[in-house]
Design brief:
1 helix, SH3 type barrels, 83 residues, mainly beta, 12% helix, 3-stranded antiparallel beta sheet
């Protein structure tokens, strides 16, 4: 479960090193990467990240997470998403 992995990274102090790939319509391949450094909150059903362009916080539902990576390794990946 993506929530479990993000929460583990948060509580072990390794969230800043993570990269979270999300479904984002309109982006190339409908995917966008979010740096763990920009994640401000992790909840059971969503996470918040600070947008680089205007500094606003963006709400991302957990079901939109496609992949979580850290230190060059895939820690979690949505089933059926092997892009």
């Amino acid at each position: 479960m993506a929530y479990n992995e993000l929460n583990r990274l948060k509580w072990t102090g390794r969230l800043a090193d993570a990269r979270v790939t999300i479904r984002h319509r309109g982006a190339p391949n409908d995917e966008m990467a979010v740096s763990g450094r920009d994640i401000t909150e992790v909840r059971k059903t969503f996470f918040l990240y600070r947008n680089d362009r205007d500094g606003d916080e963006v709400h991302i539902p957990m079901h939109r997470i496609l992949k979580i990576e850290s230190e060059g390794r895939v820690l979690w990946q949505k089933r059926g998403k092997s892009r």
